[in-house]
């Protein structure tokens, strides 16, 4: 192999694939990535493909390069990334020698790495998947972000450890819940193949990696999947991930339909108040009592031996006095991520009913936070 | 007690003292701080004093406030800081009630804290110390920073776990070494009391806290000390610290006086090269071979089974070929902190002699890095 590639292109590609390579020594082969160079045909520029997998998720990116000699090598992702990003030249030359050592050169800076037999690196399956749709990349990324916060961080219930996706009637519904809160986002899609798309659960870790890929994607992206695997295709990157096995709970009944107390709060002001409350509580659960009066919202913590906090601020609310209790952390998580509006709409029903959170500017987002029974 | 204090003043003061309050539960009293309010006399504004100690170091700051009722309370530093910094009002009112609960109010936000009997909080000794001098605060801060990096991070040799200060002939000499590298800074001082100032060793942790205090100090500051304790006085803050017991080694003989090979390197370029080298080595020690030729400096790591790195760049050097070895991390530490010049002067003698590092723009700084014997 002998190629010349733009330094920033190589470093950006390595930034995408290095996080999924394994730094532990239990499976040393997974600390490597595959670099394949293909010459251009009919005057077109050549391309290099960088790919890596950790068995759960695979990422493959294709980028332009000057390819003098095609070939494939398998080398350490972290060492290549750590050293090449320090290179001060605009271009990096990569070549192999007869002993299959790989030399990467940027100006007078040089990295030599032993390559691993490419036959040892796990093959990534690339079968065609029956269900396919097209979606705006940035809208999908934001959908992941808005729902990820409601997934279960520890994996005690496997089926809650990811975001559920349901595609029907030209719409993708992303839902996540950990039993204490729920987030739901709707996004228009253009279905390309498959009539009844099965419901799937995308694992947290894959969503985080896909967010990074979508950050760099322009325009529309394509998703194809079956019940076990999903492939996200952007202009230059393909991400393949296994899906979470299991059935996502039916959460439709959890979303309140009959809230009759609507409050519009200034998002920043409410976050400030919730942060004070969260700081004060020494427990993992951060109980806060919310009291509504016409035009005013009050938050307070229980009067404990180590102290208490209270705060109040004006809100748009015209009903009578109403009191309820929540885990301040869950409300804080929702308000922090739902930063697409200056104001947030909170909908209540009874003291022990869930709170329905909406953003006036975005009817495609909603969140639900379950109440806490307060004994004070 | 009943006072009104500017919010930013209170939060800034708490930022200084909270880091030394103890978060562990072994000595709960040390998680608190003392707040003392004194009314102004003859039309002058009142003042509040915030102070905290962890037995090793004490910090006391004095700030203006409107004092309606004087008094002293002892309350949780972390809770006060975490909640008050969220207050959105410009001023904070603080008052105590008959049960000695303290209420802090900023607009409609309110924090209530139980106060601790002030008699339980450790008294800070304030005896007059015999040796006193005045020094520019910013120059002192930079002196701490330039030498701290050479102190021993683990405390296997107590006397190397701080920065040694020697004051003589109107000059303060700060020296630190961990046996592998050494840093020395000279600063002019104005001696106010004491004829023969004893050599002292200021502990790492106290230096880090003093750096933060000096960041906020304008103009000159005063230091007084004996052999066991040191007091730093700025316009509004007093820091008291115990000193490290023990004798600092005589390091004069370690500083090379007969280097005959001088190289001027571009600091950023050398840092880039050293970072590549450090990244490559899997050991804790990061051996690098340095080869000088007229106008050129080459760095390389050993050819190991996991790969190697080489780099070279033009430098100002007119001697013949010369080769030596170092721990790249130690050179990197010096070059990173010595950022007051675009170029760095490296002085060598023989392959196994220490390297004397200087900054052309600053004759008051020098560092020494011990060589590594390379078997390749």
Descriptive report:
2 copies of one chain form a homodimer. By secondary structure, chain A is an alpha+beta fold. Chain A has 3 domains: 119 residues, DNA Polymerase III, subunit A, domain 2 (DNA Polymerase III, Chain A, domain 2), CATH 3.10.150; 122 residues, DNA Polymerase III, subunit A, domain 2 (DNA Polymerase III, Chain A, domain 2); 115 residues, DNA Polymerase III, Chain A, domain 2. Helices cover 18% and strands 43% of the residues of chain A. In chain A, strands 1, 2, 3, 4, 5, 6, 7, 8, 9, 13, 15, 16 and 17 form a 13-stranded antiparallel beta sheet that branches. Chain A has an 8-stranded antiparallel beta sheet with strand order 14-10-11-12-25-24-23-18. In chain A, strand 15 and strand 16 form a beta hairpin. In chain A, helix 1 packs antiparallel against helix 2, helix 3 packs antiparallel against helix 4 and helix 5 runs antiparallel to helix 6. Chain A starts with a strand and ends in a 7-residue tail after the last strand. At the A-B interface, helix 2, strand 8, helix 5 and strand 21 of A face helix 2, strand 8, helix 5 and strand 21 of B. Strand 8 of chain A pairs antiparallel with strand 21 of chain B, so a sheet runs across the interface.
